[in-house]
Design brief:
about 90 residues; two-stranded antiparallel ribbon; 5 strands
Length: about 90
C-alpha cells in the first residue's frame, strides 16, 4: 500500500485555538471525505502503524507523530478543543 505525507498536520503540524494559543490536548479526527466514517492514517511512510482516531495533540498543540494518508483515498479532518468544541 502506498501512502503520502498529509498536507494537514503532516510532520509535527501545530494547531491553535481561536485565540491563537496552542491547542493543547485537542483532537483531530480523520474521516472518509464527505462522511462521518472514520478513515485510517498512519504514523510513517511504511503505512504499517495506524494513528489513533482521533489523534490527540500534545501540550504544544502538535501531532505526536507524522500523519500519512493512503494513496487514492480522500480524507476529511475535523479539529476539536480538549473540551470537545469544534474549531
Amino acid at each position: 500500500m502506498a501512502v503520502n505525507l498529509s498536507p494537514v498536520g503532516g510532520v509535527a503540524g501545530q494547531f491553535f485555538d481561536n485565540n491563537g494559543n496552542p491547542l493543547s490536548g485537542g483532537t483531530l479526527y480523520t474521516y472518509a471525505a464527505s462522511t462521518t466514517t472514520p478513515q485510517t492514517t498512519y504514523t510513517s511512510a511504511t503505512g504499517v502503524t495506524p494513528n489513533s482516531n482521533p489523534i490527540i495533540l500534545n501540550s504544544g498543540g502538535r501531532v505526536p507523530s507524522e500523519i500519512w494518508l493512503t494513496d487514492g483515498l480522500a480524507y476529511k479532518f475535523v479539529l476539536y478543543t480538549s473540551t470537545g468544541t469544534l474549531i
